Design the sequence.
């Protein structure tokens, strides 16, 4: 999605530093290494059911980043990527997660959250099936530097995150990482060892169950909508 967005955006700041743009598009997930709360980087509270605007909340919290023209090119490109992640994350929560996997449908049953993780993994895996796109991203990331100046992420942390992103981009588009990624999550959700093994060892079954709850048409609709919304917010920011 990041490469397609950059191509469609066709903005000089993003094209001048696609490495920072790609890094920014992943950076809200940096909590994986900082261990801070999700809302610290996504600017969206999962427990607030009323309408939210993650982009507006980011700029309310860090007003110095609001004016793109005042930032250097790496920071401007990074923030453009960051905004795409915020918009797409918010659209996914409101349009996919809460509709198909949230408590309104599943109550206290953790199965909904498991299927949500499966869908996110599959959507990411599909993006990585396009060799031309992923090769370009890998090449750009190999030459990228973590020079964006954002107040809420320290430079050293951003450098560590760049290494994580490079490693993830180097992985093949398979389900090999799924058992390792999901085991801890399933344990925290209360699943026993036999249940975890059953889920992780029968990927076709858990994927089919997931796609029974959210159709391919719904996924395509979400991707089209969130792509348009992301482009609009980034264009507004960079104008």
Sequence:
């Amino acid at each position: 999605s990041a490469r397609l967005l950059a191509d469609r955006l066709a903005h000089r700041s993003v094209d001048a530093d696609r490495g920072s743009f790609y890094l920014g598009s992943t950076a809200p997930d940096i909590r994986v290494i900082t261990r801070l709360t999700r809302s610290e980087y996504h600017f969206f509270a999962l427990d607030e059911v009323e309408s939210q605007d993650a982009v507006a909340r980011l700029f309310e919290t860090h007003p110095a980043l609001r004016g793109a023209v005042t930032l250097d090119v790496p920071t401007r490109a990074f923030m453009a990527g960051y905004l795409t992640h915020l918009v797409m994350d918010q659209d996914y929560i409101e349009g996919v997660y809460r509709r198909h996997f949230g408590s309104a449908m599943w109550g206290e049953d953790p199965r909904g959250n498991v299927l949500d993780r499966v869908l996110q993994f599959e959507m990411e895996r599909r993006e990585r099936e396009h060799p031309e796109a992923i090769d370009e991203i890998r090449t750009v990331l190999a030459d990228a530097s973590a020079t964006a100046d954002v107040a809420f992420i320290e430079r050293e942390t951003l450098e560590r995150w760049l290494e994580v992103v490079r490693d993830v981009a180097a992985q093949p588009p398979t389900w090999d990482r799924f058992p390792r990624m999901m085991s801890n999550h399933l344990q925290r959700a209360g699943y026993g060892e036999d249940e975890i093994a059953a889920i992780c060892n029968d990927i076709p079954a858990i994927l089919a169950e997931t796609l029974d709850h959210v159709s391919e048409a719904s996924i395509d609709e979400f991707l089209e909508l969130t792509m348009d919304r992301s482009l609009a917010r980034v264009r507004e920011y960079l104008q």
